[in-house]
Design brief:
The chain has about 80 residues and is mainly α. It has two domains: about 1-45; about 45-79. The protein is about 90% helix and about 0% strand. The protein contains three helices and no strands. The protein is flat and about 55 Å long.
């Protein structure tokens, strides 16, 4: 074990460092996925972009309606 590993182990428990290492690995994988998705979006044609925008707007509208009806259910439940 190196001096830095000994010092690192002295300050916090090993479980903390294990979780940190796992989180860093997960972050790197997700960052790579993000980069791939971004490059895919950059390759879309103008018509594909329009279609994606329309689909996204519709999705947001439906989510808003879903949240509204869920809130109404919650209000009824509290009565």
């Amino acid at each position: 074990m190196s001096a830095s590993e000994q010092k690192r182990a002295e300050w916090l428990e090993a479980s903390f460092w294990e979780k940190l290492d796992q989180l860093e690995g997960r972050h790197q994988r997700i960052q790579a996925e993000h980069d791939t998705a971004r490059r895919g979006l950059e390759r879309l044609t103008p018509s594909e972009l329009d279609e994606l925008r329309r689909a996204w707007r519709r999705y947001c509208e439906v989510i808003a309606q879903l949240e509204e009806t869920t809130a109404e259910f919650e209000a009824l439940r509290r009565v």
